[in-house]
Write a structure and sequence with these properties.
By secondary structure, the protein is mainly α. It has helices at 6-12, 18-28, 36-45, 49-55, 78-86, 95-105, 131-143, 150-161, 185-199, 205-219, 251-260, 270-278, 308-321. The protein has 13 helices and no strands. It is globular and about 55 Å long.
Length: 325
């Protein structure tokens, strides 16, 4: 079992970051959400500096945009706030959150998928067959307690409909991706996150099969290696840790997803786990190695600094994998 060092846990529980405090209590330590300390932490999230800056820009209809596209400008429009806020632990019953969720459904297409709103017609919208956008939106809405909404089931069915033969997802309606021979790491991790979040609330054999196939896509690449090119590192930034996540992929995000669904003893995650463990410093913390987008309303960390978000997610991986005795 993972031994949680008191100093690290105390650092994560500091009150200056209510989101990390709440998620540490509930996800890492398993404290009930009904307990007074968790409820108090959650109540402080919406007024925290990180979240309040985002909510201050929200419009009356629940959006952060003009209504035609919720994707642009990048990192400032509604879809990005949906993805970010859903990972903060914010109370889904908060009226601003409910308005945001309902506004998000206005971009759902008849197919069940979500559009970007960037094209003149739904048929031309690149997001229709994008694992990244559809998976991320499903994940975010499920975190915000929309998993029971029939519209989410339609979105999941649509996402399942274009899972590819290698177990992953691409973005076949977007530019150069039409010619890709393999699925995309970014599209696949976002889609997998969406299915995992949905599976926390709904059990379906087809869902379990899709999740297993997506996990196998990452396992056959050992989470960051090219299986047909001498096991070379696919992209150097796959090794740079960050959290929370938007559309990017790194080994921490991959490990977080796989260990959540019980992939902990497969030899093919060993190298990624060893890399993650080696990045832990003498204080038991992890460093943010990839930048948070500079154009967002709030910054979730700086490169080169000890990072509570990265550390929390790394500990969650290690807890599942039991890599530390």
């Amino acid at each position: 079992m993972l031994t949680l060092r008191g100093g690290v846990v105390n650092w994560l529980l500091e009150e200056n970051n209510p989101s990390v405090r709440y998620l540490t209590l509930t996800e890492l330590l398993g404290v009930s959400r009904r307990r007074r300390e968790t409820a108090e932490a959650r109540n402080k999230i919406r007024d925290s500096e990180l979240v309040s800056k985002i909510l201050a820009k929200q419009k009356r209809n629940g959006s952060w945009d003009e209504g035609q596209t919720w994707y642009l400008p990048k990192y400032k429009s509604t879809i990005w706030q949906l993805l970010i806020l859903s990972q903060t632990g914010i109370d889904p019953s908060f009226p601003a959150v409910r308005k945001m969720c309902e506004y998000s459904f206005s971009f759902q297409m008849p197919s069940g998928g979500f559009c970007s709103g960037m094209a003149h017609s739904l048929e031309d919208d690149w997001a229709g067959l994008a694992g990244c956008l559809n998976g991320n939106v499903i994940a975010a809405l499920c975190r915000l307690e929309c998993a029971g909404d029939p519209r989410i089931q339609r979105a999941v069915d649509h996402l399942l409909s274009f899972q590819e033969s290698d177990g992953g997802w691409g973005c076949r309606s977007f530019g150069y991706h039409r010619r890709d021979k393999h699925s995309c790491f970014m599209g696949t991790i976002c889609a997998l996150d969406g299915l995992i979040e949905y599976s926390e609330h709904v059990r379906r054999k087809s869902l379990d099969r899709a999740i297993k196939r997506a996990c196998e896509f990452f396992l056959m690449h050992q989470l960051y290696k090219a299986d047909h090119h001498g096991w070379k590192i696919i992209r150097p930034d796959y090794l740079k840790l960050r959290a929370p996540w938007l559309v990017s992929y790194d080994i921490l995000r991959g490990l977080r997803a796989l260990t959540r669904v019980g992939v902990t003893k497969d030899e093919r995650i060993k190298d990624a786990l060893d890399l993650l463990t080696a990045k832990r410093n003498s204080e038991g913390h992890w460093i943010r190695e990839a930048p948070w987008p500079s154009t967002t309303y709030s910054s979730f960390g700086r490169v080169g600094s000890e990072d509570k978000w990265v550390t929390l997610n790394a500990l969650l991986v290690m807890k599942k994998a039991s890599t530390e005795k």
